Protein backbone atom coordinates (compact mmCIF):
# COMPACT_ATOMS: atom_id res chain seq x y z
CA UNK A 1 0.00 0.00 0.00
CA UNK A 2 0.97 3.62 -0.47
CA UNK A 3 2.58 5.39 2.44
CA UNK A 4 0.23 5.02 5.39
CA UNK A 5 -2.68 3.70 3.30
CA UNK A 6 -4.58 0.75 4.67
CA UNK A 7 -5.85 -2.22 2.72
CA UNK A 8 -8.71 -2.65 5.19
CA UNK A 9 -12.05 -1.85 3.56
CA UNK A 10 -14.24 0.86 5.03
CA UNK A 11 -16.29 -0.32 7.96
CA UNK A 12 -20.06 0.02 8.18
CA UNK A 13 -19.90 -0.15 11.97
CA UNK A 14 -20.85 2.74 14.18
CA UNK A 15 -18.93 4.06 17.14
CA UNK A 16 -20.21 2.16 20.15
CA UNK A 17 -18.60 4.46 22.70
CA UNK A 18 -21.03 5.79 25.25
CA UNK A 19 -24.11 3.95 24.05
CA UNK A 20 -26.17 1.74 26.31
CA UNK A 21 -25.27 -1.43 24.42
CA UNK A 22 -27.77 -3.76 26.16
CA UNK A 23 -30.65 -1.37 25.39
CA UNK A 24 -29.59 -0.83 21.77
CA UNK A 25 -28.95 -4.56 21.26
CA UNK A 26 -32.41 -5.42 22.58
CA UNK A 27 -34.12 -2.78 20.43
CA UNK A 28 -32.35 -3.79 17.22
CA UNK A 29 -32.76 -7.53 17.86
CA UNK A 30 -36.47 -7.22 18.64
CA UNK A 31 -37.15 -4.87 15.73
CA UNK A 32 -35.25 -7.10 13.32
CA UNK A 33 -37.31 -10.10 14.47
CA UNK A 34 -40.51 -8.08 14.16
CA UNK A 35 -39.72 -6.86 10.65
CA UNK A 36 -38.68 -10.39 9.67
CA UNK A 37 -42.01 -11.70 10.98
CA UNK A 38 -43.92 -8.94 9.18
CA UNK A 39 -42.19 -9.88 5.93
CA UNK A 40 -43.27 -13.48 6.39
CA UNK A 41 -46.86 -12.42 7.18
CA UNK A 42 -47.06 -10.41 3.97
CA UNK A 43 -45.44 -13.27 2.03
CA UNK A 44 -48.20 -15.56 3.32
CA UNK A 45 -50.89 -13.05 2.43
CA UNK A 46 -49.46 -12.61 -1.06
CA UNK A 47 -49.33 -16.39 -1.57
CA UNK A 48 -53.10 -16.45 -1.10
CA UNK A 49 -54.27 -13.00 -2.23
CA UNK A 50 -51.53 -11.95 -4.65
CA UNK A 51 -53.71 -12.22 -7.72
CA UNK A 52 -56.81 -10.75 -6.12
CA UNK A 53 -57.95 -7.14 -6.24
CA UNK A 54 -56.23 -6.43 -2.90
CA UNK A 55 -52.93 -7.98 -4.04
CA UNK A 56 -51.33 -4.68 -5.11
CA UNK A 57 -52.19 -3.11 -1.74
CA UNK A 58 -50.62 -6.00 0.16
CA UNK A 59 -47.58 -5.86 -2.15
CA UNK A 60 -47.12 -2.13 -1.49
CA UNK A 61 -47.10 -2.69 2.27
CA UNK A 62 -44.80 -5.70 1.89
CA UNK A 63 -42.33 -3.61 -0.13
CA UNK A 64 -42.06 -1.15 2.76
CA UNK A 65 -41.54 -4.03 5.19
CA UNK A 66 -38.76 -5.35 2.96
CA UNK A 67 -37.06 -1.94 3.24
CA UNK A 68 -37.47 -2.03 7.03
CA UNK A 69 -35.90 -5.49 7.23
CA UNK A 70 -33.03 -4.44 5.01
CA UNK A 71 -32.31 -1.47 7.28
CA UNK A 72 -32.40 -3.60 10.43
CA UNK A 73 -30.08 -6.12 8.77
CA UNK A 74 -27.65 -3.21 8.22
CA UNK A 75 -28.08 -1.97 11.80
CA UNK A 76 -27.36 -5.44 13.17
CA UNK A 77 -23.98 -5.38 11.43
CA UNK A 78 -23.26 -1.77 12.31
CA UNK A 79 -24.04 -2.24 16.02
CA UNK A 80 -22.74 -5.82 16.15
CA UNK A 81 -26.05 -7.32 17.29
CA UNK A 82 -26.81 -11.01 16.92
CA UNK A 83 -30.23 -12.03 15.59
CA UNK A 84 -32.75 -13.76 17.79
CA UNK A 85 -32.56 -17.54 17.91
CA UNK A 86 -36.31 -17.51 17.18
CA UNK A 87 -35.93 -16.53 13.50
CA UNK A 88 -36.82 -20.06 12.28
CA UNK A 89 -40.00 -19.84 14.35
CA UNK A 90 -40.86 -16.39 12.94
CA UNK A 91 -40.22 -17.75 9.45
CA UNK A 92 -42.90 -20.43 9.77
CA UNK A 93 -45.29 -18.69 12.18
CA UNK A 94 -45.32 -15.45 10.21
CA UNK A 95 -46.09 -17.18 6.93
CA UNK A 96 -48.81 -19.34 8.52
CA UNK A 97 -50.39 -16.27 10.15
CA UNK A 98 -50.35 -14.36 6.88
CA UNK A 99 -51.66 -17.21 4.73
CA UNK A 100 -54.18 -18.27 7.38
CA UNK A 101 -55.63 -14.80 7.73
CA UNK A 102 -55.73 -14.41 3.94
CA UNK A 103 -57.60 -17.71 3.59
CA UNK A 104 -60.38 -15.98 5.53
CA UNK A 105 -60.50 -13.47 2.68
CA UNK A 106 -59.57 -9.83 2.26
CA UNK A 107 -61.26 -8.82 5.51
CA UNK A 108 -59.36 -11.47 7.47
CA UNK A 109 -56.02 -10.43 5.99
CA UNK A 110 -56.70 -6.77 6.69
CA UNK A 111 -57.85 -7.51 10.25
CA UNK A 112 -54.55 -9.31 10.80
CA UNK A 113 -52.67 -6.35 9.32
CA UNK A 114 -54.46 -3.87 11.59
CA UNK A 115 -53.82 -5.93 14.71
CA UNK A 116 -50.15 -6.60 13.95
CA UNK A 117 -49.38 -3.04 12.83
CA UNK A 118 -51.08 -1.53 15.87
CA UNK A 119 -48.99 -3.71 18.14
CA UNK A 120 -45.77 -2.88 16.28
CA UNK A 121 -46.56 0.84 16.34
CA UNK A 122 -47.10 0.74 20.11
CA UNK A 123 -43.86 -1.18 20.47
CA UNK A 124 -41.95 1.41 18.44
CA UNK A 125 -43.44 4.19 20.58
CA UNK A 126 -42.13 2.49 23.71
CA UNK A 127 -38.66 2.24 22.18
CA UNK A 128 -38.74 5.90 21.17
CA UNK A 129 -39.54 6.86 24.77
CA UNK A 130 -36.69 4.67 26.05
CA UNK A 131 -34.13 6.21 23.67
CA UNK A 132 -35.30 9.77 24.41
CA UNK A 133 -34.95 9.10 28.15
CA UNK A 134 -31.44 7.74 27.52
CA UNK A 135 -30.17 10.60 25.32
CA UNK A 136 -32.03 11.85 22.24
CA UNK A 137 -28.90 13.34 20.67
CA UNK A 138 -26.79 10.22 21.13
CA UNK A 139 -29.47 8.04 19.51
CA UNK A 140 -30.59 10.57 16.90
CA UNK A 141 -30.09 8.27 13.87
CA UNK A 142 -31.76 5.29 15.50
CA UNK A 143 -34.65 7.48 16.67
CA UNK A 144 -35.18 8.80 13.13
CA UNK A 145 -35.30 5.28 11.73
CA UNK A 146 -37.69 3.99 14.38
CA UNK A 147 -39.98 7.03 14.04
CA UNK A 148 -40.13 6.62 10.25
CA UNK A 149 -40.88 2.92 10.52
CA UNK A 150 -43.52 3.57 13.20
CA UNK A 151 -45.19 6.02 10.83
CA UNK A 152 -45.09 3.44 8.03
CA UNK A 153 -46.70 0.87 10.35
CA UNK A 154 -49.43 3.36 11.25
CA UNK A 155 -50.03 3.89 7.54
CA UNK A 156 -50.38 0.10 7.06
CA UNK A 157 -52.83 0.04 9.99
CA UNK A 158 -54.92 2.75 8.34
CA UNK A 159 -54.78 1.01 4.94
CA UNK A 160 -56.12 -2.11 6.62
CA UNK A 161 -59.02 -0.16 8.07
CA UNK A 162 -59.72 1.40 4.66
CA UNK A 163 -59.95 -2.12 3.21
CA UNK A 164 -62.66 -3.49 5.51
CA UNK A 165 -60.56 -4.81 8.37
CA UNK A 166 -63.35 -4.27 10.84
From TrEMBL:
Pathway: Cofactor biosynthesis; ubiquinone biosynthesis. PANTHER family: 5-DEMETHOXYUBIQUINONE HYDROXYLASE, MITOCHONDRIAL, COENZYME Q10 BIOSYNTHESIS PROTEIN 7. Keywords: Iron, Membrane, Metal-binding, Monooxygenase, Oxidoreductase, Ubiquinone biosynthesis. InterPro entries: Ferritin-like_SF, Ubq_synth_Coq7. One of its GO terms (biological process) is regulation of reactive oxygen species metabolic process. The keyword Oxidoreductase applies. The keyword Membrane applies. GO terms for molecular function: 3-demethoxyubiquinol 3-hydroxylase activity; metal ion binding. GO terms for cellular component: mitochondrial inner membrane; nucleus. This is COQ7 protein. Pfam families: COQ7.
Amino acid sequence: PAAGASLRPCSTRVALDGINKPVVDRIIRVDHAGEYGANRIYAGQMAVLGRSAVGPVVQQMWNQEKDHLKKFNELMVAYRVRPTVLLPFWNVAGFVLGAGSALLGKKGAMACTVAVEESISDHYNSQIRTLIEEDPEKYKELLQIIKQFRDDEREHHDIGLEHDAE
